[in-house]
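Notes from the 1:1 (GR / supervisor)

We went over the backlog. Supervisor wanted to see one worked example end to end before approving the batch request, so GR pasted a single chain during the call. The sequence is below; no edits were made to it. Supervisor asked that the structure be written out right there so they could see what the output format looks like.
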Amino acid sequence: MLITFSGLDGAGKSTLIERLKTSLETQNKRVTVFHMNDHVGVYAYLRALRDWITRNPSSLNGPPLLEPASDLLGRASTQIAGRRRFSRMLGGIRNFVLWNRPIRRCLYPVDLLIFLCYRLYVEKIKKQVLIMDRYFYDTLVDVSDGKNWRCVRLLWLLTPRPSLPVFLDISPEESYARKGEYTVEYLRRRWVAYQKVFTWTEPSLVLTKEDLNKAARALEKMVSERMAAA
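Structure output shown during the call:
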């Protein structure tokens, strides 16, 4: 079973995912949670590579040599500068991929293939429920420009349908008040794109943050119904 959560930052995705995961595990269901930005796709791999290099600076060094202290200090300084340049370069590539819509549209099918491998392993081999914190629907919002919906619609048609796609709908103003990372204008454009994408995605469960406990109960009920019908 594949359950996906989409919505603006601050909508409550992480909270509801944790509650759902706990609820399923109390029913002896095994659960795997992936975050779209951290685990799936080219962007996630670039980020992971950058973080790995940052945590393991020796990965860019040669074998240790017996050298005078002054030479070691000079070498260490050069290596640190080199690692910083390399990390900045990876960060630049990541940001370029992240914010360049044409490139992300081209990479979308590649990311889909990567995800299908993950899904096969988790759902079919490990027999676990797969929960996605963000999904390709969020990526469609990322690559939309608010005008050319044909391309976005085509990518949507290629996207595997979740067993239960959940959309957490909050206003741009609420998102800004909770996170404050992006402008209200930017968040409003994303909100409009979410509304468009989720007119195509049926059936879906639309939740709001007005009553988190009520939303969690509605979600658990829907999941139970889908599992019983499977």
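Supervisor's comment: The CA atoms of residues 20 and 220 lie 7 Å apart.
Batch request approved.
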